[in-house]
Amino acid sequence: MNRTLLAALALIASPSYAEVVVLQGARLIDGTGKAPLENAVVVVDGGRIATVGAAGKVKVPQGARVVDVSGRTIMPGLINAHGHVGLVVGGQNKADGYTKENVQAQLARYEQYGVTSVLSLGLNRDLGYEVRDQQRSGAIPGASLFTAGRGIGVPDGAPPVPVAPDQVYRPKNAEEAAAEVRETASHHPDYLKLWVDDVYGKFPKMDPKVFKAAIGEAHKNKIKVASHVFYLADAKALIGDGVDALAHSIRDQPVDAALVAQMKKRGTFYVATLSVDESAFALVDEPALLDDPFLAGALAPEVIQRFRTPEYRDKVNADPNLPRIRAALGNGMKNVKALQDAGVNIAFGTDSGANPVRIAGWAEHRELELLVRAGLTPMAALVAATRGSAKMLGAQDRGTLEKGKRADFLVLAANPLDDIRNTRKLVSIWNGGREVQPGVQLASAR
Ligand SMILES: [Zn+2]
C-alpha cells in the first residue's frame, strides 16, 4: 500500500483527531454536580477538552470544525465501575468466551451505548492486560478497559461462573492468597477483586483470614481492592481490613450508623448494582421491556426470542430464591439512598456482562433509572456514574468535562435531569475526542 493511501485511511479511521472540534449551543452537565450551563461551548483538541464555558466567553479557534448542538444536552460518558467482558457469548455463559475478538466486540458495544470506560471487575484472563495496554497505545477502539485481572474467589464457592482455570484464583489459605495477589500485582491491574458471599447460603464463604491477607498484600503493592458483598456484617469486616470499594449493595438488612461512620472515615466507595437483582426477574415481570428497541439492540434476535418463551418464564418463577432476590433489591434501593444522603462516596456499576440477563449497554441506563427510583436525584445518579466512578478508579483524566480532561462525552437529544431515561436518547458519543455513532438511535433522539 502506498503512503498516500495509508494517510487517507488513517484520516478515515479517526477524522476527529486531526482537527479541532467545537460543539456549541448545548446544555452542559459537567459531572461535578453543579447546575447545568446553558448555551455552552466545548472545544475538543487532540482528544482532550481544550476549553469549556459559556457562549461569548470562549474563543472559538480559527479553522475549527463547528458543530451546532443547540437544544441538545452534553454530559460525561458513563463509567461502569463494575462490569465484565468475555464471559457471555451469543446470550450464554461460555468458559472459553474470553477471546480478544469477544472482548473487543463487548468494548465496542459498551461504547455504542455511551459507556466510555469500564472496569472489568474480575474473571479476566491475562489477555485482558494485553488488550488494555494495546488500547492505551491507541490500537484498539471501544470503551476504555480497566481490568481487575482474575480476582480472588473461594474453592468450590463464589463466583459460581463457568470460566477457564486461568480466569480466577481460589486460594485455600492466607499464604496462597498473598502469593496470588503478588502474581496479580506483577501485571499492574487497575483494581483487585474479592468475592465474599455464600450466594443465598449455597456455598462456603471466604475465610476472613484470606480476605485480610489479600487486602494487605494488595495495598503493599499499591493496588486498590473491591469486594463482592451481600451481608452487612461482611461489609463491616472488609472495611475494617481496608477494602476500598463495595462492589454490590448491602442487601440483607438496612445499613446502620456504624457502617456509615466506617465508610466516611475510610472514604470507601459504594457501587449499588441494583440492576443485578432486578435482572433476575425483570424480563418476566415486564415482558414489554423486550419490545424496547434500546434493549433489543443490545441482544441477538434469537436471545430476545428465548426470553419470551414460557420455558424462560417458568425457570425464573421456579427459582426458590426469587422472593429473597426481590427482597434484596428492596433493601439495596433503601441502602443506596441512605448512604447517598449520609455523604458516602457513591460510584456506579451494573455487573453487566456477567450473565445473559445483565445486558451490557442497556443495563447502565436501567441502573440510572433504578437509582432515581431509589430516591437519588437525576443529578446525583449522573454524578455517581461519571465523577464517582472516576474517583473510585483513581482515573483523574476523566469523569468530568473540564479543561484538560479526556473528551469523553455524550450528546443527548433531551435533558436527563427532566427524565433520567433521556440518557438513552443518544445523538452521538465522543470517546477521547473520537465521534462514535450510537448502536441504537431512538426515533426520539433524531
Ligand atoms: Zn461482577
Keyword list:
446 residues; five-stranded parallel β-sheet; 15 helices; 18 strands; 18% strand; globular
Please, could you describe this protein's structure?
The structure is a single chain. This protein has helices at 3-13, 100-112, 127-136, 174-185, 208-220, 232-240, 257-266, 274-279, 282-285, 293-296, 301-307, 310-318, 322-342, 362-373, 378-393; strands spanning 21-28, 37-45, 48-54, 65-68, 73-76, 78-83, 88-89, 92-93, 115-120, 144-147, 192-195, 225-228, 245-246, 269-271, 345-347, 409-412, 426-431, 434-436. The chain has 15 helices and 18 strands. The model is unreliable at 6-16 (pLDDT under 50). 50% of the residues are buried. The strands form four sheets. Strands 1, 2, 3, 4, 5, 16, 17 and 18 form an eight-stranded mixed sheet that branches. Strands 11-12-13-14-15 form a five-stranded parallel sheet. The protein has a three-stranded parallel sheet with strand order 6-9-10. It starts with a helix and ends in a 10-residue tail after the last strand. The longest helix is centred in the C-terminal third of the chain and has 21 residues, at 322-342. Helix content is 35%, strand content 18%. It has 446 residues and is an alpha/beta fold. It binds zinc ion. The site of zinc ion has 5 residues, from loops.
Q: Mean pLDDT, nearest integer?
A: 95
Rg estimate, integer Å: 21 Å
Q: Structural class from helices and strands?
A: alpha/beta
**Largest sheet composition:** 8 strands, mixed
Percent of residues in β-strands: 15-25%
Number of helices: 15
